[in-house]
Amino acid sequence: MARVAVFEGLVADEADNAVNVTYIGGVPHYVVNDAGFLRHIPSEGIDQHVLNVIQEEVLQNREAVVQGMLQFLGKDDLFTKAAIEASLGQMPENIKTLLNTGLPEDVRQWLGLMGLRVIINVHGDVVKVVMPGAIDLDE
Questions:
Q1: 37 phi/psi in degrees, rounded to 5
Q2: Which of 15, 75, 132, 38 is nearest to 29 (CA)?
Q3: What is the CA radius of gyration of the chain?
Q4: Which of 59, 78, 85, 109 has the fewest Cβ atoms within 10 angstroms?
Q5: pLDDT of 1 over the 80 cut
Q6: CA 47 to chain centroid
Q7: Which has more confidence, 73 or 128?
Q8: What residues have CB less than 8 Å from 100, skipping those under 6 apart?
Q9: What's the rounded Cα separation, in Å, for the pair 5 and 37?
Q10: What is the model's pTM?
Q11: CA 81 – CA 76 distance, rounded (Å)
C-alpha cells in the first residue's frame, strides 16, 4: 500500500481544477470535487498508472534518454553510460520505491514547471498524462 501521493500537486480533474490530497487511515487519496461531492480516490492506482506511462515513454526512447542524461551530467564515458543504462533496467524496482517514498517536493515542482500534468475523471481513471517534451500523436 502506498504511503504518499507521488504526483501531489500535479493532478487535476477534467475541468483543470487542482486535485487535493488527503489521508484516510494513513492511505493517501486524491480528492476530486464532483459538483460538490468530494470523491476520495486512493492515489496508488493513479500513481502506478502514471509511472507506467512514464516508464514506457523512457524505454521507447531509451537511447535518447541515455544521451540526454550524459549531456546533463556533462560526461560521455563508457562507465557513466553503463550506470545510466543499468538504472533504466531497474525502473520497476524504482517505481515500487517511489510509491512508498514519493518524489521530493523540489522534483514535483520542477516537473510541474516543465509541464507534467495528470488529468483524472471523477472515478479516478487517468484521462491524460501531459508530459514535457512528449509528442502528442493525436495532433
A1: -95, 120
A2: 38
A3: 16
A4: 78
A5: no
A6: 6
A7: 128
A8: 2, 3, 4
A9: 21
A10: 0.80
A11: 7
